[in-house]
Amino acid sequence: MFTRTPQVRAALVGVALWALCAQGAAAQPVQLTVAADRPGPVIARQLYGQFTEHLGQGVYGGLWVGPGSAIPNVRGWRQDVVQALKRLQVPVLRWPGGCFADEYHWRDGIGPRARRPVRINGNWGGVAEPNAVGTHEFFDLVEQLGAEAYLSGNLGSGSTQEMAEWLEYLTADGPSSLARERRRNGRAQPFRVHYFGVGNESWGCGGNMRPEHYVDLYRQTTTFLKTPADRAPKFIASGGFEQDTTWAEVLSRDIRGVFEDIGPKMAGISHHAYTFPGGDFAHKGPATGFGTADWVSTLRNPQRIGQILTQLEAKLDAHDPKGRLGLYLDEWGAWYDPEPGTPPGFLVQRNTLRDALLAALHFHVFHEHAQRLRMANVAQMVNVLQAMVVTDGPRMLLTPTYHAFELYKPFQDATSLPTELRGQPELVEGGHRLPAISASAARARDGRLVVSLVNADPRQAHRVRLDVRGEAVGTVQGRVLTADAMDAHNSFARPDRVQPRALATPAGGDPLQVELPPMSVAVLTLGR
Length: 528
Ligand code: AHR
What we know:
Distance between the termini: 25 Å
Bound molecules: alpha-L-arabinofuranose
Largest sheet: 8 strands, parallel, barrel
Strand content: 15-25%
Shape: globular
Number of helices: 12
Radius of gyration: 23 Å
Structural class: alpha/beta
């Protein structure tokens, strides 16, 4: 039987336990069957989305250096970082927060930069917020990246009028004073707003609301959010956190019945789920120098997130059986103890090989939930939490997570294919269990079959034998990301310590068998 759900997949996990002292590849290959003749839902490229917030050096320094900077830039956006991100084909970028969004007033960020007000960033270290990056700068960035724009509106401390006027400023054409003001500020054509979030974490930093209050506020507020019909964004409701599914329950239930009126004003519900190795926000754990128990407890978290997604889907299925509402996991990623010596509230953490595997395991879960899951945004893009890129003044380096996103590019807008794994070992450590091998498969937009594999075993290589149903396949090519330590990371001294390399193909052996090194992520292309 082919599987898509982690629960069923877990049931198929073999009984072999992790051999603590094992070296080399296990004796028997794990069997991976791909049903090329049973296409599933399309894996929306937005599942590979990004998130950037006015937080630490996520924007200022990491992306924005200003047009006068000695760091090469285009209209203020540093080009080493922008060009690196372009290679990821960033599909969508969420901005300006996060918690920052519910304290952000869009009028602070338009007009001549020298005259913009300086505010205090009350969520993130109490530092000065110069408002040098505002609406026009953000849209310049997404246009340079070729990404869709996802704005988070201020529901917590802003007014309905303020939000409505921002949308009019962004999207109106013709004689409107707000459109004229936009033109005076240098933008003749309306901006293309693809997604608009109504608040962020409204249960917490976005206003400490109850879902029943939020849903009424959402209905009231969105009544007044108007755009030209051909420029309407998809409106996203702010949802729950971790295992709390009550927001999805209340939102999907209370939208039902008025769906024909409000439906176009709610494309979906957001949810946030982070990975804390210690189990919750209060128990994060170090980003480096951890042991195998932390390795397993971290890497099993995507499975837990998959279970949360299943529960959210059940809520939505009950109230929206036609599947009109999407799930938007618009914040996910590893959240560790901050790097010692970094400013409070800047959320700086080292990014290691563990994070690359963590990202890949998230991608596999996202592919399994591609029917309802319409977007996922890693937190965050640059310098903050599980970042793609780290900067230090004029220097930049790519993280292991960057390389995972780069490897998985063929899955953007690919058609998912069912997979089945048989005979694989299970890692058991510190009371946590994790299948050693995880796999996903899809038919890429160019027609090629792609398979991704993760070997989470930190000590042992594993061979995987591919069996493709419904298509003749005789060759396998691919790249693998691995390193010599669980917490291996790139640094300015060794920027290429963790980077992909070609996966060795077996010489004279079975062409459909690959050997995955310990602690590795591989993406393969299958040919005839
Ligand atoms: O990504 C950091 C913070 O995490 C965001 O600002 C907030 O939405 C979440 O709690």
